[in-house]
UniProtKB/TrEMBL annotation:
Any single Gene Ontology cellular-component annotation: plasma membrane
Catalytic activity: Preferential cleavage: (Ac)2-L-Lys-D-Ala-|-D-Ala. Also transpeptidation of peptidyl-alanyl moieties that are N-acyl substituents of D-alanine
Key words, A-Z: Cell membrane, Cell shape, Cell wall biogenesis/degradation, Membrane, Peptidoglycan synthesis, Transmembrane, Transmembrane helix
Protein's cellular compartments: Cell membrane; Membrane
Family designation: Belongs to the transpeptidase family.
A biological-process GO annotation: regulation of cell shape
Membrane topology according to the record: Single-pass membrane protein
Protein name per Swiss-Prot or TrEMBL: serine-type D-Ala-D-Ala carboxypeptidase
One Pfam family linked to the record: Transpeptidase
Its EC number(s): 3.4.16.4
Length: 699
């Protein structure tokens, strides 16, 4: 019996499988063809309408510390309502604002008349349209903006009086909504925890509203040194392009003054980035992609806040004492700068000025860089060194101190001193000695005939050139956005004004310029930029510890004055005699262990002005005269570690002696505090060790 051959079914099954695959591929190809050919353009349009929107939330700013690591400016946690505009209508914004107003308290102080008019137009459309006739619309060619402006002009006070207190609150909220940009969170207002909880409960009713954790600046020492810390606020209009080009948003907060502005790039944190994917209608397609931010870098300042507070009390008390004696003719004020002569580091800057409305004293430390005064005899060190440098006098040169008459001007010292040299001229503050130098710079003086001949402009130019080397009349270079340089009186065609220039009664200088001038003499002739920041550090990750150092600032030498070392030492000796000489004008400070050297100044004022800049006159209509009192110096004189300038302006001339010398009083008190704190802290400051290595001779 023959075996039957088995018939295989594999080819049939394979054929069926291939046929099914063929059908599936055919369907896929058909579908792809429909999508690409029939619906391709539509899908392409949808794809093009899909956009990625990036929102950046600001990170906290860097913290500021004083030179010993005490926190002076920090960030305080606050809860902030934000609004993200999704290109909705004004009516929708008003609806959200109205609901939000029911949940929080609103500050209405920033609401303007224009804000109220805009609101009135939105909520009174028909009446607003009736403010413009059809003929006027045709004349304006139905231009919406021109019609809107005409409506604004025709809204009366009566219309605005229709607005209720609730309306004003809603306007205040919408005003903040309008300041934002599409898909970017805009800060609306700070809220309490209770208000935040209420808002969070009703978020679904207010599209675009959210609550975020934010921060605001907190000043640990209150008003102390507050003006130099500066402020944070919205980007100024005239700087908007500058900031936008650097990646800022229009709604960002930036440093707008002083240290906050100067170190904006450092203090600014790295923002938290939220990337949203939206479809063509502006709806979110997916959850945002989040990139965490980081707090800004920290600043270690040069200021000693404990010393600063002591100095402030000393200045405040002295002004109050003088006020009680009717000692001021102008606005009661005083200014103090303490600086390290070998590094330029500012240890303290204090100032107070009377508020003309309240008659109370207000902190005005910023006056040290913006207010300029005639500094009187305090500048005579620069005058003597100018004489040495220009060869019209030498150490030991004698001039006869007596009354001189020249060009219709009469000049004398407090008393006729006879033949004196440069040291005595500084010790006793001779005016005539300085006048002799000034006259010799521009020409020659015939003592017998009382006649001078020469080139007046050369005298002014020579004096100013040499004064500028000390920082007088030019910017000091302090690390702040701006500073004043004082008033340059020009070049009058009279020799008399040149003589007054030589004794500090012509051009004006700021207290900071005077401190830099004094420090330059103290350190042997190096003009160093004053500095308020000594280090930049990474934000700390450990509570109570400072972060790693990013940058340390070395002393910045602006120039070395032209004068020889022997000339500078000669003037240093003259400054020592001012305090320690038998007839020195500040010998009351000679009993202190810290050995002061310095120069007094009393600038006679031809007139005194009040708070409104009006000349103060007596009953007969004559302008009342007064003086500025100044004392600049450094200590110890044989190894200077602190230089200072004290200015008390617009004082009444006191013949009774009861007022004493206010600038000297303040100087003695602040030096007492400085050296007392140094002793308590067990030893000299590190920056005062090995002074010879502190100065970088490069520009």
């Amino acid at each position: 019996m023959s075996k039957r051959k088995k018939k295989t079914h594999m080819p049939v099954r394979l054929n069926i499988l291939f046929f099914v695959v063929f059908l599936l591929f055919s369907a896929l190809i058909l579908r792809l063809g429909v999508v690409q050919i029939v619906q391709g353009e539509e899908y392409q349009r949808k794809l093009e309408r899909t956009v990625n929107v990036i929102a950046k939330n600001e990170a906290p700013r860097g913290v500021m510390y004083d030179r010993f690591g005490h926190t002076v400016v920090e960030n305080k946690l606050v809860l902030m309502v934000t609004y993200t505009n999704a290109n909705v209508s004004n009516e929708e914004k008003l609806r959200v604002a109205e609901r939000l107003n029911e949940l929080i308290d609103v500050d209405t102080n920033k609401v303007t008349e224009r804000d109220m008019k805009d609101y009135w137009i939105i909520t009174n459309r028909e009446e607003a349209n009736n403010l413009v006739t059809r003929d006027e619309m045709r004349e304006l060619e139905n231009d919406a903006m021109d019609i809107y402006r005409l409506q604004l002009d025709r809204i009366t006070e009566e219309h605005l009086n229709e607005l209720t207190e609730k309306d004003i609150e809603i306007i205040a909220i919408k005003r903040e909504f309008d300041r934002g940009f599409a898909h970017t969170p805009q800060r609306v207002t700070e809220v309490t925890y209770e208000e935040a909880a209420r808002v969070l409960e009703h978020l679904s009713e207010m599209p675009g509203i959210d609550i975020i954790r934010d921060s605001e600046r907190n000043y640990v020492y209150g008003s102390s040194f507050r003006q130099f810390f500066g402020g944070v606020g919205s980007i100024p209009r005239d700087s908007i392009d500058f900031y936008l080009s650097r990646g800022y948003y229009r709604s960002d907060q930036v440093g707008i003054s002083q240290l906050e502005q100067q170190y904006e790039d450092v203090l600014r944190g790295d923002k938290e980035v939220l990337e949203h994917v939206l479809d063509g209608s502006g709806r979110l397609i997916d959850q945002p992609i989040e990139t965490p931010g980081q707090r800004g870098k920290d600043l270690i300042l040069t200021v000693d806040m404990e010393l600063q507070q002591h100095v402030e009390k000393i200045v405040y008390d002295e002004i109050q004492r003088l006020k009680s004696m009717n000692g001021f003719l102008g606005v009661p004020a005083a200014y103090v700068v303490l600086i390290e002569p070998y590094t330029g580091e500012v240890l303290a800057m204090s100032g107070f000025r009377e508020n003309s409305q309240t008659n109370n004293l207000s902190s005005y430390e910023i006056g040290n860089i913006y207010n300029a005064f005639e500094m009187g005899s305090a500048v005579k060190g620069a005058t003597v060194l100018t004489g040495f440098q220009e060869g019209v006098a030498q150490p030991g040169t004698f001039f006869n101190d007596r009354t001189i008459n020249i060009g219709g001007q009469r000049m004398s010292s407090v008393s006729a001193m006879g033949r004196i040299n440069d040291l005595t001229a500084l010790e006793r503050s001779s005016n005539v000695y300085m006048a002799e130098i000034a006259m010799a710079l521009g020409g020659t003086y015939n003592h017998a005939q009382g006649r001078w001949s020469g080139n007046i402009p050369i005298g002014y130019e020579t004096m100013r050139y040499n004064f500028n080397q000390f920082g007088l009349g030019v910017k000091t270079g302090i690390d702040l956005p701006s500073e004043a340089t004082g008033f340059n009186g020009g070049i009058p065609n009279t020799i008399g004004n040149l003589l007054y220039f030589s004794i500090g009664q012509f051009d004006t200088y700021t207290p900071l310029q005077m401190a830099q001038y004094t420090a330059t003499i103290a350190n042997g002739g190096y003009r160093i930029s004053p500095r308020l920041v000594r280090e930049i550090r990474e934000p700390s990750t450990i509570e109570g510890e400072l972060g790693n150092v990013v940058k340390q600032f070395a002393p910045n030498v602006l120039n070395r004055i032209d004068m020889k070392d022997d000339y500078i030492k000669r003037v240093q000796e003259g400054f020592r005699l001012v305090v320690h000489g038998s007839r020195g004008t500040a010998r009351a400070l000679s009993n202190n262990s810290y050995k002061v050297a310095g120069k007094t100044g009393t600038s006679q004022l031809f007139f005194v002005r009040d708070a409104n800049n009006n000349v103060i006159r007596d009953r007969s209509g004559n302008a009342i005269r007064g003086n500025n009192q100044i004392f600049v110096g450094y200590a110890p004189f044989d190894n200077p570690e602190v230089a200072f300038a004290v200015i008390v302006p617009d004082l009444r001339i006191d013949n009774s002696g009861r007022m004493g010398r206010p600038a000297n009083n303040i100087s003695g008190s602040i030096l007492d505090v400085y050296f007392s704190l140094k002793s308590e802290r067990n030893g000299p400051r590190t920056s005062n060790n090995n002074h010879s290595n502190d100065i970088d001779n490069g520009e």
